[in-house]
Specification:
Elements (H helix, E strand, L loop, with lengths): L11 H4 L5 H32 L1 H33 L1 H33 L1 H34 L1
């Protein structure tokens, strides 16, 4: 009788073959024949591969590919070291930061002008606000374009 409380998913009762000894012998003989057959096929395949020169050709292709990868990595390494040595990355980052600060200062100046003119002339205030919005949008657009260009050049 099965014990259904057993947590083991495999039970000996499930594994009991229902073969008689003759069937077991036949099954083992079939397995032996299959092993011999597959062994022969493996030997024939290896002989064909050896005779065709496919194995050395494949090994040579892997060797050439590994050399190409090595050379490419070395070129990238040399290029990035040269760019670092020349200060290209730092100079570019500094230029971006300087441009950003100048844009922020310009925006603040335009805000101050808008506030001062709004006090002096309420009608002109709306026109200056509109002008300020245009300057803000344009400076954000230009900053975005510059950043995209830098990212594209760094990636390329």
């Amino acid at each position: 009788m099965k014990n259904y409380n057993n947590t083991n998913a495999f039970s000996y009762e499930d594994a009991k073959p229902e073969w008689n000894p003759k069937q077991t012998v036949e099954a083992l003989q079939n397995i032996s024949k299959n092993i011999r057959g597959y062994s022969l096929k493996m030997k024939e395949t290896m002989k064909a591969l050896r005779d065709s020169g496919a194995i050395p050709e494949f090994a040579e292709a892997i060797r050439e590919g590994s050399f190409a990868v090595r050379d490419t990595v070395n070129d990238i390494n040399e290029t990035t070291k040269e760019l670092k040595r020349k200060g290209i990355f730092v100079d570019t980052a500094n230029a971006i930061e300087s441009t950003y600060k100048s844009a922020e200062e310009s925006i603040e100046t335009v805000k101050e002008i808008t506030i001062d003119s709004g006090i002096a002339s309420p009608h002109a205030s709306k026109a200056l606000h509109d002008g300020f919005d245009v300057v803000k949008k344009e400076s954000n657009l230009v900053t975005g374009i510059v950043m995209k260009g830098i990212k594209h050049k760094v990636v390329a």
